[in-house]
Task: structure prediction
Amino acid sequence: QVQLVESGGGLVQPGGSLRLSCAASGIIFNIYAMGWYRQAPGKERELVAAITSTGSTYYADSVKGRFTISRDNAKNTVYLQMNSLKPEDTAIYYCNAAFGIHNFWGQGTQVTVSS
Result:
C-alpha cells in the first residue's frame, strides 16, 4: 500500500519560514519524481516545485528564490523549505509521487501565512 504522509504545515507570520516533509512508503522511492503542489481556496491545484529521480529541480515562478525542494532517498522523504513566506502562499500543500503511469498523492498539510 502506497502512503505519502506530509508534515510540517502550520501558521506562520509573513516573512517566516516552514519546512514541509513528505515520507513515502510502498514505492521504490528513488525512481519517482517527487513534487509539491498547493491549492488555495477557490483556486486550482498548482505545481509549486518538483525534483526528479536524478535531482533536477523545477520551481514555479511565484516561489523561485524563496522555496527549495530536496530529497533524501535513504529516508524516502522529500522536503520543501519555504522562506520569506507571503500571505498568498496560504494553501493546502500536497505531496505527489510520479513514475510513468503511476501517480500518488498525500492527504495534504495546511500552510497559513498571516499576521
Summary: The chain has a mean pLDDT of 97. DSSP finds no helices and eleven strands in the chain. The two ends are 40 Å apart (CA to CA). The CA atoms of residues 35 and 51 lie 6 Å apart.
